[in-house]
Amino acid sequence: MKKLINSTADVLSESLAGFAAAHAEIVALGDEGKFVRRRNLKRGKTALISGGGSGHEPLHAGFVGRGMLDAACPGQVFTSPTPDQMLAAAEAVDTGGGVLYIVKNYEGDVMNFAMAAEMASGKVATVITDDDVAVETSTYSTGRRGVAGTLIVERMLGAAAEKGADLDALQALGKRVNGQTRSMGVALTSCTVPAAGKPTFTLGEDEMEMGVGIHGEPGRRRVKLAAADAIAEEMMTAILGDLNLKAGSEVLLLANGFGGTPAMELYLMYNSARRILDGRGLKTARSLVGSYVTSLEMAGCSLTVSVLDGELPELWDAPLHTAALRWGA
Amino acid sequence: MKKLINSTADVLSESLAGFAAAHAEIVALGDEGKFVRRRNLKRGKTALISGGGSGHEPLHAGFVGRGMLDAACPGQVFTSPTPDQMLAAAEAVDTGGGVLYIVKNYEGDVMNFAMAAEMASGKVATVITDDDVAVETSTYSTGRRGVAGTLIVERMLGAAAEKGADLDALQALGKRVNGQTRSMGVALTSCTVPAAGKPTFTLGEDEMEMGVGIHGEPGRRRVKLAAADAIAEEMMTAILGDLNLKAGSEVLLLANGFGGTPAMELYLMYNSARRILDGRGLKTARSLVGSYVTSLEMAGCSLTVSVLDGELPELWDAPLHTAALRWGA
After folding, report:
1. Among A22, A62, A260, whose Cβ lies nearest the Cβ of B260?
2. Domain of B87: which CATH number?
3. Is the pTM of this model over 0.95?
4. E strands in B188-270
């Protein structure tokens, strides 16, 4: 295993320490690293909290800040955080508007966030994301997996919360955005979890995993490496088949790297995907290209399409100031 | 070779097409991809142009926009752009204030930018960056290589140009910033140039290349993989030995990924490097952590320290709006 680490036991704490130091104007560590919180809270705003296993950075801690999350609870790599982390985060950032948990659909995360919600003294609601169209059930999830579309939910809710939306309205908006967001991924290589010390899976020199999960879970099928256009075609066909949009619809297109993918390839995949949208008469009204929801150093990418109707373009564009995404602020 | 591409011949053009489409509010392609230019020029401002081989994205095209570059000339992967690209870019973005070329110290780039400067009809000056302390001469360079510190030069000059600095002042500032900026890198794996189809070099399962260049050029020595703290110590000792700073000095610390490095590891390396600065009584006044000057999918990172004296913190913080770096705008 080749990693820039000191010991597998200290990867998370040392990485979090670096993250908090590098972005001290935006975030602070709470309870010795149980959670990452927004440094300056907005009184009375509904608090948004997410979390999950580490190894997907910048998700979620990189999205803590004005216009997105109020706190993120990092578990060990690919391992759910614990209910006490979520409770501690809620206590720290709930300024009277209640707390909305945004949870990717994995059994451990869903169970632990549900326990935290039950134990909470304040008002709590939950939105579960399940945007991955690749498979209907998977290694760690009953039902579809929550993947890169989660960042779109977090961003839209963050903007709405900043404008004063209450807990019920945010939960409804979260369900709506998740319901019109679809993703699919492909892996060219595996990743290696530090504590495991060896690759999660193996692929032949000419193979790829079509529909891979962000923990290296199996996808739809293992196939021969194909051209970027053919890969994009398969992913976009699955995504658009599920969304069933009318021509003229406006969408956000996210080309997301898994951690080991050069920017050149991501922009090339974005180009392929966008041409497919063009060909179907869909308007790419907003775009995001980069490694935002990763699987450690996995090579590969996901494509996400999210429908931008109603107030959503305005929410997407609203001022945002986090470590990983920043505009208008 | 596992890459998300259609053909090795089209990697650059398709990637540029995606980049320009994704960031159409900031950039436009000039002359069918000869250069990437800022969409809205500021009349009379000295124009800043950089460029070099592709494969280092987001450098340089990702830094085109308000507060940084006016144009970037992309060569094929790890291959210098040609003088006609630079001339075309200069003609397109020189609005009367002359043109400053910012050039990484590689023989091909230096020669081609010099030819372009000679052929120019307008006023042209050049700043060469050579921040890599690893080796004094290398495969493609006479003298030190220009690496991640280049983005700091580009950003400081971009901010100064925006404030009205003229060509001479910008050239002097560029030399000053480059002269107080030092970097060093380490590779855990090689990268694969698409047209070559195989890794540029090979490392054993327990080896790393200490002092690697951003094209995979050899560094100081090939050694056993070490702990992050030990790696940071060697790099920072080389960097700080060369800078020779007084205790209390304020610096910018950049932990830069080479393309295949997870964010967790980058923040961990940042943490190690920052503790070393702390230990020497140096103040980390600004920070940047991410994969900004890459070598395709190489795993590894570089550390850069740049002295922030005088007006430099203010220039660093000034409004910036590019595809890869954005704040205050």
Report:
1. A260
2. 3.40.50.10440
3. yes
4. 207-210, 221-224, 250-257
